[in-house]
Amino acid sequence: MYKSTVKEIGELVEAFEEEMLLILFGPAATEELKSICVLHKTIEQQENVLQPGVKLQLGEATYTIKKVGSAANQNFNELGHISIYFRDGENEILPGAILVEPGAYPKLTVGDIIRIGN
């Protein structure tokens, strides 16, 4: 199980809703990245938690991971960074991304919990 808390939501995060993309980043995010990311702080960590079929909870919304990019676990383990696509499962994803279902964009607020695990 992985668990973290939303600490800050960048002012440009909503601009990615049309693309159905949410970018998470840990505390090491640079100033340039902070405006487009949801910044979170780890409470409980498990390595390589991003796997197809695993549940992802973002605040009140729950998703199932469908695809995992080749660098997604490494980026998440080291930086708390992951790009999450809420799209049709037929699309290709970048190495540092995951694809989840259902395709509903989450509404996050500071203090919300992020959980990954079944």
TrEMBL record:
The modification Phosphohistidine is found at H40. Pfam families: PTSIIA_gutA (PF03829). InterPro entries: PTS_IIA_glucitol/sorbitol-sp, PTS_IIA_glucitol/sorbitol_sf. This is PTS glucitol/sorbitol transporter subunit IIA. It comes from Enterococcus entomosocium. The lineage of its organism: Bacteria, Bacillati, Bacillota, Bacilli, Lactobacillales.
